[in-house]
Amino acid sequence: MLHIETNRLKELAPYGGAFLIFLGVVKLTIYYSAFNLQITSFLDLTEILSAFLNDLLFMTIAFSFLIVFDLATSSKSELESNKNLHETFSLEPKFWKRFAVFLKMFGGFLIPFNTILIFILIWHFLKHTDSIYTHLWSFFSPNLMSVCAYLLLESKRKYYTIYQKTLDPSTFNIMLYVIIILITLINNTRIDVQNVKEKKRFAKTSFVIDSIVINSDSLHYYIGNTKNYLFFYDQQYNRTTVFPMNKVNSISFGE
């Protein structure tokens, strides 16, 4: 259960803008680093804030599911049970017993989720071998979140060992939500890079600079633009050329 107390959300609300900027910088840095470009030199604030708008739909769906799940399991008895599990994990000295507690907390999600993913992997291996690596990452991502959740619980336990104080479940869940958002963002950005580099999403894009037409192909192609700059990638030499947008007369996107 990933319940967060309302008062904690109110305390965090003023930091929402800074967190959005952080997410935008992370997404743009990961994407353009794949094309050997340090993008931060070419950005302004509005572009950073809007960088991950394409990811919002996926995140909204995912968090809507989590919110519905939270509402369905946020009875007083469930909250008390969750608090007890956190305390049991913090106080338990044996690893295997702590892991058993972890499975009680997250196993209801992880076990069926991984079972479904295994069947999907087998199906794609038999029918669509070209997409197996994409689904391997889909298998890896939620389990990476689980590893992070376990490490957070271990950190919470270490905090208790040193300071003899327990972190409330809301604090833990806030950190876990941040990890989920980051991993989701990284995963979606990785897919964006794959679509451009491997699936040649912009291979038929062309643009005009000072009356000269520059066409994209499988090895030389447009990868994106900001308000002031356009980026053109040479895959053969792993080099990105930056064109000022005030020199660009037009851009044409082909299918």
Description of the structure:
It is a single chain. By secondary structure, the protein is an alpha+beta fold. It folds into 2 domains: 6-197, no CATH class; 206-252, no CATH class. 63% of the residues lie in helices and 12% in strands. It has 8 helices and 6 strands. It has helices at residues 6-12, 16-33, 45-49, 53-72, 76-91, 95-127, 132-163, 169-197; strands spanning 206-209, 212-215, 220-225, 229-234, 239-244, 248-252. It has a 3-stranded antiparallel beta sheet with strand order 2-1-6, with no helix packed on it. A hairpin with a 3-residue loop joins strand 3 (220-225) and strand 4 (229-234). Helix 5 packs across helix 7 (132-163). The mean pLDDT is 78.
Helices and strands in order, then pairings?
Layout (H helix, E strand, L loop, with lengths): L5 H7 L3 H18 L11 H5 L3 H20 L3 H16 L3 H33 L4 H32 L5 H29 L8 E4 L2 E4 L4 E6 L3 E6 L4 E6 L3 E5 L3
Antiparallel strand pairs: 1-2, 1-6, 3-4, 4-5
Helix pairs in contact: 2-8, 5-6, 5-7, 6-7, 7-8
Largest sheet: 3 strands, antiparallel
| Unreliable segments of 5+ consecutive residues | none
Helix-residue proportion: 55-70%
Overall mean pLDDT stands at 78
Global geometry: elongated
The count of strands amounts to 6
Strand content: 5-15%
Number of domains: 2
Strand order of the largest sheet: 2-1-6
Q: With helices defined by DSSP (H or I, 4 residues minimum), what is the helix count?
A: 8
